[in-house]
């Protein structure tokens, strides 16, 4: 299918299915099965996977344009396929053996293999290189022990991409390797799904590996000690998708607040005609456009060669901070009604707060941007 046709299809899916059914996400605390089928059938799981593995092979600019569309709806829909299309499949694509690619990528492109990315631990968040989960080799097996935290889609996962320490003596990321672990393996327990401020309907529980025995060929690639490179490959992909998600969510927030401003009458005037309200709408729209431009620029650089880590960090940092400001203004425009549950702006206010925290907090993006720029200009 031509890209423009696919984009139109996803726009229609968002308008006709995703947005009208958003209330079901919180009511069911999950994405309904029938909508998961729509997502699978739409091809959204396939956008980042090459044609030879059954994917649609869209480039990053196209993936970003698609993300602007489907994230006008609740980001909970996105979270159900994001760990598969970004974090997991991209690491397999760049670091997996030919057998691992054949084994997992076609199923991921169809949405039949759900990938879940297991890096963070209770004591290792921003400092990912300090993870303690260990994988000990015994003959043709590895035995994994450790606890992972905030693992999105763990209850639905078919496959975990697990980062674990294979060389306990090596410092930092050097002793870390990545494993492709079948979620049905013995010794894996998924914890209770924690309640969250937002993204209700998405699950990010702890996952416990207790003497979990996996075949030696579960090691991603064929060598131990790949460090955090496979994880970062997925994370850079995901960071750009998060930046695009912030743009989609900001567009929706602006649409909702304009709709509200036109209908709310005070002092016998629609509040949309008041300069103070217009200033907030103008600031939100301008900042959204700036994010959109930054995200597209980073995506084009991604497509033209090596991964532009600084531009990606800047797009993720700016866009996640931008959407929080847009959400705050949108809520302000609603007055007291914005503080009551049951409307999209209040939900988006809660949902968008997450984007400054995961895939690297804003402080980690600032640190990465500054470090890279200082080095470049030395
Ligand atoms: C809903 C949700 C879903 C998630 N999904 C996943 C997932 O699927 N897989 C996964 O592996 N992880 C996942 N995460 C984990 C997420 O990536 C981490 O929460 C994030 O990296 C931050 O780590 P932390 O929460 O431990 O915070 P910490 O690292 O403890 O940070 C605490 C504070 O200190 C600041 N800080 C830390 N280090 C520095 C520094 N060097 N300089 C300046 N400030 C610093 C941080 O910015 C923050 O403000 C998810 C998290 C959430 C909330």
Topology:
Layout: H1 3-18, H2 22-28, H3 33-42, H4 60-70, H5 75-95, H6 98-110, E1 115-118, E2 134-138, E3 141-148, E4 159-165, E5 176-182, E6 188-190, E7 207-215, H7 229-263, E8 265-266, E9 269-270, H8 275-303, H9 309-334, H10 344-352, H11 362-376
Parallel strand pairs: 1-4
Antiparallel strand pairs: 2-3, 3-7, 4-5, 6-7, 8-9
Helix pairs in contact: 1-4, 4-7, 4-8, 5-6, 5-7, 7-8, 7-9, 7-10, 8-9, 9-10, 9-11
The structure holds flavin-adenine dinucleotide.
Flavin-adenine dinucleotide binds next to strand 1 and helix 11.
Structural class: alpha+beta
Number of DSSP helical runs: 11
Count of structural domains: 3
Q: Please describe the biggest sheet, giving its number of strands, its sense, and whether it closes into a barrel.
A: 4 strands, antiparallel
| Extended strand count | 9
Element-level helix/strand string = HHHHHHEEEEEEEHEEHHHH
CATH fold-level name of the largest domain: Butyryl-CoA Dehydrogenase, subunit A, domain 3
Rg measurement, Å: 21 Å
Query: Quick one: CATH class of the largest domain?
Result: Mainly Alpha
Give the names of the bound compounds. Answer: flavin-adenine dinucleotide
User: How far is it from the N-terminal to the C-terminal residue, by CA?
Assistant: 47 Å
Q: Strand-residue fraction?
A: 5-15%
> So, CATH architecture of the largest domain?
Up-down Bundle
Averaged pLDDT, please? 97
Any low-confidence stretches, pLDDT <50, length ≥5? none
CATH superfamily placement of the largest domain: Butyryl-CoA Dehydrogenase, subunit A, domain 3
Question: Spatial order of the strands in the main sheet?
Answer: 2-3-7-6
Global geometry: globular
Helix share, percent: 40-55%
